[in-house]
Specification:
mainly alpha; three-stranded mixed β-sheet; three-stranded antiparallel β-sheet; globular; disordered N terminus; disordered C terminus
Length: 407
């Protein structure tokens, strides 16, 4: 996903949407794509860049001014209301969260489909090491995105034929990292207020800071900004009921994430995966002593155990079904990785924010200093910080519980 363009989300997001949860993976798109087309080769590469150019052009060509749409009589009242909310979110992002709104989210595009892009992720059958793709200006990323579902599923089939575990997920929102002024899309404008707030703040977080070729760092940082921003916005607007509901969802998210990451860790032990100095997972150099049949059987037993544990967790969720959709996708190594990119380092970034007394500007400065370090040193520091924040990190800090009127 990204060729000289970038690609990358949430997405959450939180997790592949299909109403699976609030995860918005995103396509981060830059310029220079046309230049790159001249120098690349291979059917899949050329086809990918071609559809990326066409897809981004269609979005840029069809955007309309929100100010003009708001003034038109034939614009649906529901859409006008969302535009008013969006204006409030932009102001809050600029004044309270110190995020660069510039001219972002001042135009609107209806792409006439449920997702703007579809992300493809892959990993070997017996390793959680994610397949990566290299993109000019952005470095290596762990996903490839398509503006059509057919393009994504066709490429996914190609990877499956090569023996990979593959995951395909719809993307509702993306950031172009400042190369273009990001428009509002029909794929996310009608989400509930708290989720829309988190999406906008998350994507603007990418505009503030972005580490080249470091998906896990970027997504965990932006997720921290999105969630903290949504909490503060709900509190500032006096929406205690929705704040309490939002914090409850984040507690469920914590449990879900711990479940997925724990499952992934058990599989890594089974496969013999290794962790590099910069925190990346690498497949074992030596062939496992177990046969492929035994590996497959034990892998399935671990995944079945995760499904059983999720069913148990849901009995205490008061009917929350946000993550049901995630389990409707094939559960495999790449699908588990799609969660890790957003949450592996989230506790570390929350720790930094707390250490700065909740001051967003000081938080950004600290993260920017961390970003300047070599990738291996950066990840080592994040892992150390994450270990100091054991247990559910999001929504369970004392100040959050106080805001929500209790647990």
């Amino acid at each position: 996903m990204a060729d000289s363009n970038l690609i990358g989300s949430k997405l959450l997001k939180k997790l592949p949407k299909e109403k699976a949860g609030r995860c918005y993976r995103k396509w981060l798109i830059g310029v220079g794509l046309l230049i790159v087309l001249v120098g690349v080769s291979g059917c899949h590469t050329l086809g990918f860049y071609g559809q990326a150019v066409k897809g981004q052009y269609q979005i840029l060509a069809h955007q309309e001014s929100i100010a003009k749409l708001s003034a038109q009589r034939d614009t649906p009242a529901r859409l006008k209301q969302r535009f008013e909310l969006l204006a409030d979110l932009r102001q809050f992002a600029r004044t309270e969260l110190k995020l660069p709104t510039d001219r972002h989210y001042q135009n609107y595009v209806d792409v006439h489909r449920p997702f703007v892009v579809w992300n493809v992720e892959a990993a070997p059958e017996f390793s959680t090491e994610p397949k990566t793709w290299w993109y000019p200006l952005l470095g290596s990323l762990e996903y490839r995105g398509y503006f059509s579902k057919a393009g994504a599923t066709n490429y996914a089939a190609y990877l499956r034929d090569k023996g990979y575990d593959v995951s395909v997920g719809g993307v509702g929102a993306y950031s172009t990292l400042g190369w273009f002024k990001d428009p509002v899309l029909n794929t996310f404008i009608f989400e509930d207020d708290a989720e829309l707030a988190e999406i906008i703040f998350h994507e603007l977080g990418h505009q503030r800071l972005f580490a080249r070729g470091d998906t896990d760092f970027n997504e965990a940082f932006a997720t921290t900004v999105g969630q903290e921003g949504a909490r503060r916005w709900l509190k500032a607007r006096g929406n205690e009921a929705e704040l309490k509901q939002y914090l409850a969802h984040l507690r469920h998210s914590d449990q879900f994430v711990h479940l997925v990451l724990g499952t992934r860790a058990r599989l890594q032990t089974l496969y013999g995966d290794q962790v590099t100095a910069d925190g990346k997972i690498k497949a074992a150099e030596k062939k496992p002593s177990l046969s492929e049949q035994d590996l497959r059987r034990q892998k399935q037993e671990i995944l079945d155990g995760m499904l059983a544990e999720f069913a148990r967790l849901k009995t205490n969720w008061d009917g929350d079904t946000d993550y049901d959709g995630w389990f409707k996708h094939p559960i495999n190594n790449s699908h588990l990785n799609s969660v890790a990119a957003y949450y592996d380092y989230l506790p570390a970034f929350e720790q930094i924010l707390d250490a700065k007394g909740g001051d967003m500007e000081k938080f950004y400065v600290a993260v920017e200093q961390l970003m300047k370090k070599p990738k291996s040193a950066r990840h080592e520091e994040l892992r150390a910080l994450a270990k100091t924040r054991l247990g559910p990190a999001r929504a369970q800090r004392p100040q959050d519980l106080a805001r929500a009127g209790g647990g």
